[in-house]
């Protein structure tokens, strides 16, 4: 199974989380994977792990989403948009195997496919803001590191 397909299944699991309690999700996960039919153990394990990792970081992810989306706190967002955003932010922040651009593009495509008319542009806007802030922070850290190294270097004219 390709990564895109796996990502779509994790997205669907994140969406299901919005309608089921933690206890119910254990059974829902089993039923979901049963419903997929023939599925390699490797694919199933990858999807379960990714789902669990997103859930693990949900508090931090939601804080980032609340900060980046003006006037749209996670509680007010469409559940489809929220599932796509959560998965993308997880990939951008915690999954080094997924480039930021890929995470954004895949989330936008999921939002367009499963969400409302404005879902794609909404998801793109929120994730674009998060990506910009991430780039700014990285540039600031690199500048600080460079300045620190320059300050530590012995003067050449001494």
Automatic annotation (TrEMBL):
Domain NusB/RsmB/TIM44, first and last residues per copy:
5-131
| Segments for region (Disordered) | 130-158
Feature: compositional bias, Basic and acidic residues: 131-152
Xref: InterPro entries: NusB-like_sf (IPR035926), NusB_fam (IPR011605), NusB_RsmB_TIM44 (IPR006027)
Gene Ontology biological process? DNA-templated transcription termination; transcription antitermination
One GO cellular component, as annotated: cytosol
What Pfam family does this protein match (any one)? NusB
One Gene Ontology molecular-function label:
RNA binding
Superkingdom of origin: Bacteria
Q: Which residues form a coiled coil?
A: none
Instruction: List UniProt keywords, sorted A-Z.
Output: RNA-binding, Transcription, Transcription antitermination, Transcription regulation
Family as reported in the entry's similarity comment: Belongs to the NusB family.
NCBIfam families linked to this entry:
nusB (TIGR01951)
Role, per record = Involved in transcription antitermination. Required for transcription of ribosomal RNA (rRNA) genes. Binds specifically to the boxA antiterminator sequence of the ribosomal RNA (rrn) operons.
Q: What is this protein called?
A: Transcription antitermination protein NusB
Provenance organism: Blautia massiliensis
């Amino acid at each position: 199974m390709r990564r895109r397909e796996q990502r779509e299944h994790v997205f669907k699991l994140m969406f299901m989380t919005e309608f089921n309690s933690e206890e119910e999700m254990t059974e829902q996960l089993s039923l979901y994977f049963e419903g997929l039919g023939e599925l390699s153990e490797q694919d199933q394990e990858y999807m379960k792990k990714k789902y669990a990792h997103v859930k693990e970081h949900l508090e931090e992810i939601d804080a980032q989403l609340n900060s980046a989306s003006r006037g749209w706190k996670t509680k007010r967002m469409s559940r489809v948009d929220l599932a796509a955003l959560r998965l993308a932010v997880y990939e951008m922040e915690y999954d080094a195997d997924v480039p930021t651009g890929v995470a954004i593009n895949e989330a936008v495509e999921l939002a367009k496919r499963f969400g409302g008319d404005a879902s794609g542009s909404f998801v793109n806007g929120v994730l674009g803001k998060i990506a910009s802030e991430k780039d700014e922070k990285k540039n600031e850290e690199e500048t600080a590191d460079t300045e620190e190294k320059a300050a530590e270097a012995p003067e050449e004219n001494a």
